[in-house]
Amino acid sequence: MSSRSSSESPTPSRLPGLPEGATDPCVHCGFCLPTCASYRVLGTEMDSPRGRIHTLKAIEAGELVLDATVASHFDSCLGCFACVTACPSGVRYDQLIEATRPKLNTAELRSPWQQTFRQLLLAVLPYPNRLRALLQPLRAYAGGPLQTLIRRSGLVRLLGPQLEAMEALLPPLAPEGFKDHFAEVNPATGQRRGRVGLVLGCVQRCFDPQVNAATLAVLQANGFEVVIPADQGCCGAVSHHQGQMEQTRELASDLVQRFRAATGEDALDAVLVAASGCGHTMKAYDELLNEEQRGFACPVLDVHEFLAARGLSEAFRAALQPLPITVAYHDACHMIHGQGITTQPRQLLGAIPELKLREATEAGVCCGSAGIYNLVQPQEAAELGQLKVEDLSRTGASVIASANIGCSLQLRRHLQEDGPEVRHPMELLARAAGLTIDSTI
Ligand code: SF4
Ligand code: SF4
Question: How far apart are CA 9 and CA 56, in angstroms?
Fold first, then answer.
């Protein structure tokens, strides 16, 4: 169990702005507790959904102040929304925590180091060019013998838990991750079935560039023309998750403008995304953006959701070759709880001949990634990451299919060197269809 310390000087602060009556349906039954990732590792009522709802009620009633100690119990929440799925009373905890988070971003509620570290992350991660500039000097280090040596020596511990977690999550850096190399308009292969846009994601394109390449190849091979606006930035998911609403709106608005400029007046069937954290935020653009900024004119869909709805093309199905591997599909929280997408990725993977799907026992529990949670709350995140890889490894699968970049990095960090490898479902589909993106599968 992780421990926490108490604050000595509470700063009085009310918490206005919660959706009217949103805490009322909670009947304190506790059905949400077993699914709650933070309760699982911290074990205290204050770090459970029920406890946080009770806290919010007390703050609203003026019986409790939002001081640093209270705020730490909201910071321990991963925003995984497993409690929303579990709640029989229909409590919208997602709305509660999203309304609470902006209130946590005040100087007196976090230590100076936590504030600086968070600001640094939000100044770098959502901007691919800044992230690439920061990663340049690490190209030889990441995935190389020096990294192995440094990790074995234990020297990284001297950096402190947050920077140690950063180093532990750093994957080998592929050259393609340092430049967006896609054409703006990518034609469909064979019979054209539609036209879609593709969002590259800020972290995904830098750390796992073959995912976007595979997604593009699969979409083209299924008859879709794919528009990828050049110089597109972040969708705003990282800052949205931290309650930094101004930054989120700026990023979201800029992304919409880039798509509008690239597609002109030509309609897209949908804007697609292959990272579920991004998809969850992008689906909320209509609420996040004002009328002047406006969201996308077409639906935003996760690529699995789109392909399952439209169906794989006959030509693509015919091209699928047997892939005799066992795969455990990992349900990212922003996919299963945030977007209600569970069957579609499994359905697509099930189309691959000889691929066997295995199910983990705790699919709905968070892996500890949760945006930047595994960097700002490294101890809790590490416990959750370990529990998740143990659960997935027990399936005996040789491959874990993960459709969210944050989860993929977290799982790779905690898996044994000789454990299952982590791949995006689009990579597996591309491989089976002979659209080889990465020969190491
Ligand atoms: S949030 Fe829902 S599941 Fe959790 S205690 Fe309240 S009513 Fe029960
Ligand atoms: S969002 Fe996740 S971590 Fe937060 S209270 Fe709900 S189940 Fe727990």
Answer: 20
CA distance 314 to 425: 19
End-to-end CA distance of the chain: 37
β-strand pairing of 194-199 with 224-227: parallel
Does any ligand 2 atom lie closer than 6 A to the CB of residue 218? Answer: no
Q: Is 365 within 8 Å of 333 (Cβ atoms)?
A: no
Q: Where are the alpha helices (DSSP H) in 269-358?
A: 276-282, 285-288, 303-310, 314-319, 333-336, 343-350
Mean pLDDT of the chain: 92
DSSP 87-126: -TT---HHHHHHHHHHHH-SGGGS-HHHHHHHHHHHHHTT
Position 7 scores a pLDDT of: 42
* Cβ 49 under 6 angstroms from ligand 1: yes
Nearest partner of 332 among 436, 237, 417, judged by Cα: 237
Question: What would the mean pLDDT of 5-24 be, rounded to a whole number?
Answer: 59
Q: State yes or no: pLDDT of 426 exceeds 70.
A: yes
With the most atoms of ligand 2 within 8 angstroms of its CB, the residue from 83, 84, 369, 388 to mutate is 83
